[in-house]
Amino acid sequence: MNLRQLTPSMPLLVAFEAAAKHESYTLAAQELFLTQSAISKQIQQLERHLGVKLFQRVGRHVELTTAGRKYYGEIKDALDRIRRASLQAMTSDTRDHTLHLATLPTFGSKWLLPSLHDFYAHNAHITLHIHSRIGPVDFSDQEIDAAITVGSGNWPSLIAHPIQNEQLIAIVSPEKAESHALTKEWVAQQSLLTVASNPDAWHDWFLYNELDPHTMHPGPSFELTSHLTQAVHAGLGVGLVPHILVKDEIARGELVAIGTPRQSLRSYYLVYPPQHATLPALVAFKEWVLSLKSPD
């Protein structure tokens, strides 16, 4: 079959996409700043080109046929990809000097942001956009170039560089610390606050301290470590959090550490899809952030 027959012109496809989205020639015309007659003619031309009916009239309205609905599903995704590719091409020079980085909110504010002045001192030509993300990062929408996340490092489809160990420490408010002996047995009787992304942390802590996990008293769960530490400070229970995220509060006496930090089964990683590996801004950021790598 002639390839030209399989490749309708872009104006026809854009008119069809708008008409299919609204199932209305009138609304399609308004969206594309054309007349309703022009939309109708373009749809008719596309139907002749393909040799199939894409719309059917139902009273005074139009509806997609079965073939039209299937065609719309394919065309919409294809046009979206073309538009994204065009935007990337149009902004390629800017993209070389821009990095969109997703990071865990508390880790970003406590570990990354305080050091960014050093990054900019060596990379003044790069603009870094920070996006807060909790949980897995979706790279399919092309908004995010790279991410800092926490886990075991098992992301088969991504390139992952470890940047910081995670060491967990049990913490309590100063008021509770003043009135109790902070033994592991005392901790086992308290309301245990957890971060939602690491629900097994207390179970592992109990096993490490030779305590029976069945005796735990689970307390509230929090999405953000910063919210958990605020709850601990308010006396709502005992928290188990990454030491690096609370060491300043411990040093200032705002929180009291119970025991010593111990290595978690997780670490913090810089991750990104292989196709982003050569982005100049990402290369510069990767070199810089890996130079910060150090034990907690």
Automatic annotation (TrEMBL):
<dbReference type="InterPro" id="IPR005119">
    <property type="entry name" value="LysR_subst-bd"/>
</dbReference>
<feature type="domain" description="HTH lysR-type">
    <location>
        <begin position="1"/>
        <end position="65"/>
    </location>
</feature>
<keyword id="KW-0238">DNA-binding</keyword>
<dbReference type="GO" id="GO:0003677">
    <property type="term" value="F:DNA binding"/>
</dbReference>
<dbReference type="Pfam" id="PF03466">
    <property type="entry name" value="LysR_substrate"/>
</dbReference>
<comment type="similarity">
    <text>Belongs to the LysR transcriptional regulatory family.</text>
</comment>
<protein>
    <submittedName>
        <fullName>DNA-binding transcriptional LysR family regulator</fullName>
    </submittedName>
</protein>
<dbReference type="InterPro" id="IPR036388">
    <property type="entry name" value="WH-like_DNA-bd_sf"/>
</dbReference>
<dbReference type="InterPro" id="IPR000847">
    <property type="entry name" value="LysR_HTH_N"/>
</dbReference>
<dbReference type="InterPro" id="IPR058163">
    <property type="entry name" value="LysR-type_TF_proteobact-type"/>
</dbReference>
<keyword id="KW-0804">Transcription</keyword>
<dbReference type="InterPro" id="IPR036390">
    <property type="entry name" value="WH_DNA-bd_sf"/>
</dbReference>
<dbReference type="Pfam" id="PF00126">
    <property type="entry name" value="HTH_1"/>
</dbReference>
<keyword id="KW-0805">Transcription regulation</keyword>
